[in-house]
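Progress note, sequence design subtask.
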């Protein structure tokens, strides 16, 4: 892992990491395997402990055995006994119902005592790996027992999405949290920002003159961002009914990726310089008025179909989903970033569940040349395409035209693909390794700042309200397809198509 040029980083990484939701899925699948691998990479400080807070009655042995099983199953590296024994020493299971505010004082005493044993200097990471409805209660508990901010130490609060369910609730939650933790101590996770190729967007753009000099509306015809999943909602129907694709994927992952593709070069690599440029992109997105949305957005919901040769249920048949659900599992839209760099170049985005492929890609389509010398028939000219492959393949694909050596005058597109297949780039612990390490060293670059969240909600709220006012005729795409026909028409009416390279 590379250290950034960032002068605000903690010198002392020693800390106690308190995980609320210590017996939950996130802790087992992501956090523990990530910490295990961080130990392996020697990135966890010597003075470090993990206090896993859970409601379940478990002995420390039982808890450790669960963690070991999870690491065996989800870690990218096999269990090494020496590393496991180091992790095992760090973990403490603390049984506590975190909705019981009277218990926080006792937790504080426990942590203070542990501090003296571990010599972690009083620094704390409070990781809320719990359902969002508990965020406020826990923060309140931390405040009441004086655990939040202490002199001469650092305390950081880590929050998973969803951060609110709309602008109003997000603001209310933020106000509450801000009473206890200052913005600089709040780490709002968007696991997409932990992915290698997402971090590579800035390097590719600002580290290569051939890209950066062409990265604007004069040379780029359109940008396409596709985050597609074969997975359905599985057992998460209850959650998904409240969220839908717009809250689940668009408000966070899609808009975060968009900001990195469209941002101006920051003046340096300090976290706030980067986040300020990202924020400006969100502010420059053309307002989603109902008139604009009428022609530029497509919602979808999957019906039954086939995935990898096996039949799968439609969304309305999934567990905890009503048979008349109007929740979207797919969104495609065109949007404009109205600034000097991008005015006139559309961004097409799409994301959905139960699609034909599981992949995340950004396609930059460059403008075509006049058909004066070659390609006299307009249809024959293949545009230059730069594809940033995020997952499962990771790397860069570039398409350019060359002479077809097997004919006299033919021209063929040459496809240069530097990407490699890496199934570990999905929603796996890997992204969390980088994110947890950054939390410890106090680098919030890869976390969403409040104004980004606020702008993202402003845009998403308009989409959600628009969708809620319509009857959608769901289901409107088969599982295993690439979404509703209208999503293809969205580009076809502009004389374009989704690239699938
Ligand atoms: C999560 C969503 O944030 O991202 C899930 O809640 C989705 O619904 C997941 O499946 C996708 O992440 P990845 O890393 O697998 O593309």
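Output:
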């Amino acid at each position: 892992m590379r250290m950034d040029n960032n002068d605000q980083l903690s010198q002392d990484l020693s800390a106690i990491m308190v995980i609320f939701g210590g017996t939950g899925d996130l802790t087992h699948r992501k956090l523990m395997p990530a910490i295990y691998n961080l130990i392996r990479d020697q990135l966890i400080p010597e003075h470090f402990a993990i206090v896993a807070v859970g409601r379940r009655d478990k002995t420390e042995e039982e808890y450790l055995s669960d963690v070991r099983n999870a690491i065996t199953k989800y870690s990218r590296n096999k269990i090494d006994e020496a590393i496991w024994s180091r992790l095992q020493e760090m973990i403490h299971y603390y049984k506590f119902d975190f909705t019981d505010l009277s218990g926080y004082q006792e937790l504080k005493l426990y942590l203070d005592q542990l501090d003296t044993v571990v010599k972690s200097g009083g620094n704390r990471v409070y990781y809320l790996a719990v359902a969002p409805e508990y965020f406020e209660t826990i923060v309140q508990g931390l405040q009441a027992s004086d655990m939040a901010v202490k002199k001469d130490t650092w305390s950081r609060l880590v929050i998973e999405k969803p951060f609110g369910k709309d602008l109003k609730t997000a603001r209310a939650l933020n106000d509450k949290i801000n009473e206890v933790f200052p913005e600089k101590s709040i780490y709002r996770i968007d696991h997409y920002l932990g992915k290698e190729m997402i971090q590579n967007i800035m390097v590719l753009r600002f580290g290569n003159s051939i890209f950066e000099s062409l990265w604007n509306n004069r040379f780029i015809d359109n940008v396409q961002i596709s985050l597609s999943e074969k997975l359905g909602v599985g057992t998460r129907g209850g959650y998904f009914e409240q969220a839908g694709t717009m809250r689940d994927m668009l408000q966070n992952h899609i808009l975060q990726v968009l900001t990195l593709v469209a941002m101006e070069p920051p003046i340096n690599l300090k976290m706030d310089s980067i986040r300020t440029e990202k924020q400006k992109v969100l502010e420059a997105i053309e307002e989603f008025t109902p008139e604009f949305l009428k022609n530029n957005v497509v919602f979808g919901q999957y019906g039954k179909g086939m995935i990898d040769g096996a039949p799968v249920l439609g969304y309305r048949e999934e567990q905890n989903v009503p048979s008349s659900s109007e929740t979207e599992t797919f969104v495609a839209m065109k949007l404009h970033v109205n600034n000097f760099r991008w005015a006139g170049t559309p961004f097409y985005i799409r994301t959905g569940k139960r699609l034909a492929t599981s992949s995340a890609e950004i396609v930059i389509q460059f403008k075509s040349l006049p058909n004066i010398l070659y390609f006299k028939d307009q249809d024959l000219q293949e545009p230059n395409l730069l594809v940033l492959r995020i997952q499962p393949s990771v790397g860069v694909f570039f398409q350019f035209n060359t002479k077809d050596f097997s004919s006299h005058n033919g021209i063929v597109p040459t496809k240069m693909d530097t990407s490699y297949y890496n199934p570990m780039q999905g929603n796996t612990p890997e992204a969390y390794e980088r994110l947890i390490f950054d939390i410890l060293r106090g680098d919030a670059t890869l976390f969403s700042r409040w104004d980004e969240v606020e702008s993202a909600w402003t845009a998403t709220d308009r989409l959600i309200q628009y969708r809620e006012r319509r009857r959608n005729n769901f289901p409107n795409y088969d599982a295993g397809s690439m979404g509703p026909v209208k999503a293809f028409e969205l580009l076809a009416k502009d004389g374009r198509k989704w690239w699938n390279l």
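Residues 237-262 form the longest helix (26 residues). Work on this subtask will continue into the next period as scheduled.
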